[in-house]
Amino acid sequence: MASLASSQSPDKPRRAAIYCRVSTGKQEEDGTSLQTQEERCRQYVAEHAYTLNDAQVYREVHTGAEIWEREQLTRLRQAIRDHDINVVVAYALDRVSRNQNHIGILVDELERAGVALELVTEDFENSAVGKFIMSAKAFAAEIEREKFRERSLRGRRALAEAGRPVPGPRPRYGYQWTNDRKAHLDEDPRTAPVVKRIFADVLAGKKLRRIAIDLTNERVPTPTGGPIWGNTTIDTIVRERAYTGQLTAFRYVCPKVNGRRQVHLRPDGGIALPEDVATALIPTATFEAVQAILAANKRLASRRNKNPEAALLRNGFLHCGYCDYTLCAYPDAKGTMRYHCYHTTAPARACLGKPSISASLIDTAVWERVTAVLARPELITDQLQRMRGDDPTVFDRASLDRRIDTLTRQRERLVKRLSEIDDDDIAQSVIRDAKALADQIRGLEQERQALVARQANWRQMCSALANLQDWCAEVAARLETLTYEQRRLALQALDVHVTLWRNDHTPRYEITMNVPLDMSTTPGQIVPRTQ
C-alpha cells in the first residue's frame, strides 16, 4: 500500500474515492480488468472502514500516458480540490499513470489537499524514500511502455520492408487472410462482391447516397457489421487504391498536437508492398475511371445550390430529432426550399420520423430567437464575465509550475553537489540523476506548452464573445438589415443548434445556444408555429 498522509482526524470516518483504468476498449469489453480492479478496491475500502459513495467510483478507458485528456481523472481531481474525499484508492500505481511527471503532479495535488493515495497491490512508505520509489516505479512503467511501442513499431515495419502486409485487428473489407501466417490477402466470398458492386454502381452513374441507401435497404452489413451504410463509408471504399492489389504500408503518420491526434500522409508515401500480396478486386482502369467520376461530381456539387442564401440553417445547424443526422436543404417539386433528413430510409435504424420542414418557416423562427439575444447585449456580457472568470487551465498550470519548480531546485542542488565530488563513480551517478531530472523538466515544459495552447483557445473564445458583444451593441438598431453572411456569423458565434421533429411531436423544434436566456419561454426552446 502506498499512502500519502491525509489531514483527516483519525476519529472521523475517511471518505474514499476509487479510480480504475484500462488502456483499451478491448480490455473494457472483456469485463474483467475494470471489474476486478473495482472489486479489489471496494474490498480494500471495506477492510479499512472507509466510507464510499458510488458517485466517487471513477472508471476509465484511456491510455495511462496522458493526464489532461482523461475525463474521469479530471472529475476525480476536481473532487480532491473540493475536499469531497480524504483518500484515493487505486489498484496499482500504473493504473493511475504510467508517466512519472504526471505521477509527480498528482502527488503534489494530493499533498496540498491533504488527501492520501493508497494502492491495493503495492506498499510504499510515506517518506521521501517512498515517494522516490513511487516516482522510479512510474518511470520504469513509462520506459517499459515506450519500449513496447518501439518494439511493436519496429516489428511491424520489418514486416512491411520484407514485403509482407502488416496485420491489423481484421483484414481490409473485401478481403480475408489466405492462412494463419497472414502473408496474403485473398477475396472474401461474402464481402468482395459488395466492393465490386459499389465500384460498378459508381461507373453506372449512381450517386454515393443512392448506393448507401440501396445497401442499407437490402440489409447488407457494413464493414463494421452495422446495419446503416453512410456516404462516408462508400466514399472511403471507392477511393482506396488497395482494391487494385497495390498495397502500401505506413502511409500515414499520426502526431499529437495540443492533445489531439492528427492524421497526415507520410512525405515518403509509405512502403509499397509487392503486387502478389493481395488479390486485385478492381482493375486499375476501373479505379481510375471511378476517381474521374468522383472528381467530376465534386465540381458539379459546388454549383448545385443555385440559391444558398435561401437556407439560413444549411451545413450543420439543423439536426434530426430521431437520428441526430444533419438535415439537408433542397427545393421541392414546387421550387420551395425545404429541409429533409435523408437518413430515414434505413429500416434498421430507429429514425422513424422522416422530419421535413419549410426553410422559410424554421429559418424565420430561429432568427427571431437570435435577434432576441442580439438585441439584449447584457446577456452576452454576463456570459463573457462567466467565461473570463473560469480559466479551464488554471489549476493544471499551477500544478505544472510547482512541479517544474521543485524539479529545477532538485537539479540545481545536484549540479552544486557535483562540483564538490572527487569520486568519478559518484559523479557519474549524480550526472545521471541530473540528466533524468532535466528530461522530466523538458517533458513537463512540453505539457505546459499544450496547456498554454488550450488557454489560448479559451482566450480566443473570450475574445470572440467580446467582439460579438461589441458587434451586438453596434447592430442592435439595424438587425433587420444584416446580410446573409452576418446572420450566419451570429449563428456560429452563439453556437446555435436546432433539433427538428415531425408535426405530431411537441415541441416541433428546439433551439439551443450557448448564451443562457432569461426570457418568457423555457431556455433553449420556443413555442413553434404549426406548419
Overall description:
This protein folds into 4 domains: 15-144, Resolvase, N-terminal catalytic domain (Rossmann fold); 175-301, Hect, E3 ligase catalytic domain fold; 308-377 and 484-512, no CATH class; 379-468. The protein contains 15 helices and 18 strands. It has helices at residues 25-30, 33-47, 71-81, 93-96, 100-113, 128-161, 192-203, 208-217, 231-238, 284-301, 359-374, 377-388, 394-418, 424-475, 484-493; strands at residues 15-22, 51-61, 87-90, 116-119, 175-177, 185-187, 248-249, 252-253, 256-257, 260-261, 264-265, 271-272, 318-320, 328-331, 337-340, 356-358, 497-500, 509-512. The protein has a 4-stranded parallel sheet with strand order 2-1-3-4, with helices on both faces. A 3-stranded mixed sheet has the order 13-17-18, covered by helices on one side. It has a 3-stranded antiparallel sheet with strand order 14-15-16. The chain is globular.
